[in-house]
Design goal:
It contains seven helices and six strands. By secondary structure, the protein is α/β, with parallel strands linked by helices. It has a single domain, classed as Phosphoglycerate mutase-like (Rossmann fold), CATH 3.40.50. Strands 3-2-4-1-5-6 form a six-stranded mixed beta sheet, with helices on both faces. The radius of gyration is 17 Å and the shape is globular.
Length: about 220
């Protein structure tokens, strides 16, 4: 089994001002979520991989400390940088949302919002690259990363392919429908060569959700 954990609530998730994508930290709630998911996740990892982004690394750290398994940053796991952070610098969530909505409405897989952004086609290729490595990962590998990244991984593992405008729109609808709260946990098990089963850890998700409603 390979386990995926989405990062805890970030300052951006909490409506904070835009900053460089890689440097967005966890919020106070996000740090508590990270500590709780580390306590709840009953896995002795052989390998612990994380996105190189701060919010994912901060979420992985309590689990790494609990299990004494070092974090190995993986360049293919980082978030989709659809928007160039410098071009939306200083904006809060309500200001960023129309720009992001316009990006997805245009559905141009080769659209680059700015020099420090990534096209959907590039993002898709990066996730496909990781999918090609998965069969070689040891059992009880744990990944810490980002919701849209995991959604695209599932999309590809289930056989969807292509990067044109139609696929991009269909994927966006799928991604929005996939339950992916902060610190969501999913298990992936290879049933046969090239075939994967997906299992949500609903109990962990509900416990994390309860924490979000019980803020100090």
């Amino acid at each position: 089994m390979i386990y995926f954990v989405r990062h805890g609530q970030s300052t951006a998730n909490a409506g904070g001002v835009t900053m460089a994508h890689a440097e967005i930290p966890l919020s106070g709630l996000g740090r508590r979520q990270a500590a709780l998911v580390a306590a709840l996740l009953e896995v002795e990892p052989i390998l612990l991989l994380s996105s190189t982004y701060v919010r994912a690394l901060e979420t992985a750290r309590p689990f790494s400390e609990k299990t004494s398994c070092p974090i190995t940053p993986h360049r293919l796991l980082h978030e989709f940088s659809a928007l160039d952070a410098e071009l939306i610098d200083g904006m809060v969530t309500a200001q960023r949302r129309p720009i992001a909505d316009a990006f997805w409405a245009e559905a141009d897989p080769d659209l680059r919002h700015g020099p420090r952004s990534e096209t959907f086609r590039e993002f898709s290729g990066r996730v496909a690259g990781f999918a090609g490595e998965m069969a070689h990962l040891p059992q009880d590998t744990v990944l810490f990363g980002h919701g849209i990244w995991f959604a695209l991984l599932c999309w590809k593992l289930w056989g969807f392919s292509g990067d044109d405008a139609t696929v991009m729109r269909e994927f966006r609808r799928f991604q929005r429908a996939l339950p992916m709260p902060n610190c969501a946990v999913y298990g992936l098990e290879q049933a046969a060569k090239g075939q994967w089963r997906l299992q949500a850890d609903e109990a962990v998700m509900h416990t994390i959700a309860d924490l979000a409603t019980d803020r100090p």
